[in-house]
Amino acid sequence: MKLVIISGRSGSGKTTALHVLEDIGYYCVDNLPVSLLPQLIRELRQANSPVTMVAIGIDARNAGGQLHKLPNILRDLVGHGVETQVIYLDSDDETLIKRFSETRRKHPISNDTNTLREAIEREREILNPVASCASLIIDTTSLTLHQLRDQIKVRVGEDVDSMAILVESFGFKNGIPKDADVVFDVRCLPNPHWIPSLRNLTGLDQGVKDFLAGHQPVREMIADIIAYLDKWLPRFAANNRSYMTVAIGCTGGQHRSVYITEEIIVHLRAHFSNVQARHREL
User: Fold this and answer.
1) Are residues 185 and 130 in the same domain?
2) Which residues are paired to 171 by β-bridges?
3) Whole-number Cα distances in Å, 58 to 4, 162, 189
4) Are 21 and 141 in the same domain?
């Protein structure tokens, strides 16, 4: 049996993630008390149920403050042959505040004595035991609902034997992606931003591609990153790593990082079956 725990702070996209998994065949239960998790799995097994994939939503409302028990419960389930994964969704505080303001929903742990911001900060503390178990953290700050659905389908929903790899371009001016496992800084390379005819283009446009491909340091950087990934990604995969996010950053995330991400993707797809690209700033 495969068990996926979906958790994260309110407003980060947990409900959307559960709906995606339900659509692809998971038996889904939202906000199940942690202490009932072993009983649910036991009941499904004893009843000879056809259910082999279960997704459970867990949030800060969990009954009785039992979230600290989750690591031990998951360890016991693994010992009984249950494949477990914890997927933790999160966004920055300002984005969560904006989402609650736009929807006019009440935060689940807010009350008459605390503000929305205080509730959001407190929720992070409550969910720390769950976040510490996560095998995959997805930052939904800049994701649309459609992009989140696609990420869940590709990185969680598909039953693939190989490690799922996401190569993501970004701009350092907007911060490093929270879910990055490996970060490469390419800001030392020639910048198309300073060429007036290229400034409003991106690394997906032929003019920018030609400009960057014509510089030896760019070619060397790509070769060095590929050499590193060729050596170490198989070792991460051999260590039972399910997900890997490789982040490529330049100043604005528009030219250099986008171009290099696309070049690396072409190479990786020849060696791994589950490779995706994302350009955060585009």
Assistant:
1) no
2) 250
3) 11, 27, 44
4) yes
Question: 134 and 8 in one domain?
Answer: yes
Look up the pTM and report it. 0.63
Cα 209 to Cα 263: distance, rounded to the nearest angstrom: 10
Token readout for 141 is 């700050």
State which residues form the domain around 225: 164-279
- Tell the residue number behind the tokens 């399910």, with chain if given: 242
| DSSP of the chain | -EEEEEEESTTSSHHHHHHHHHHTT-EEEES--GGGHHHHHHHHHHTT-S--EEEEEE-TT-GGG-GGGHHHHHHHHHHTT-EEEEEEEE--HHHHHHHHHHHTPPPTT--TTS-HHHHHHHHHHHTHHHHTT-SEEEE-TT--HHHHHHHHIIIIIS--SSPEEEEEEEEGGG---TT-SEEEE-TTS--GGGSTTTTT--TTSHHHHHHHHT-HHHHHHHHHHHHHHHHHHHHHHHTT--EEEEEEEESSSSSHHHHHHHHHHHHHTTT-S-EEEEETT-
Sheet of 2-8: strand order equals: 27-30, 53-58, 2-8, 83-90, 136-139
Same domain, 121 and 21: yes
Joined together, the tokens standing for residue 100 give: 């609650």
Look up residue 119 and give its amino acid.
A
8 A C-beta contact, residue 167 and residue 264:
yes
Q: Which phi and psi (to 5°) does residue 135 adopt? A: -90, -15
Q: How confident is the model at residue 162 (pLDDT cuts 50, 70, 90)?
A: low
Distance of alpha carbon 216 from the chain centroid: 33
How many domains are there within the chain? 2
**Which of 86-95, 168-177, 233-242, 266-275 comes out lowest in average pLDDT?**
233-242
- What distance in Å separates the CA atoms of residue 54 and residue 5, rounded to the nearest whole number? 8
- In sign, the C-alpha dihedral spanning 23, 24, 28, 31 is negative
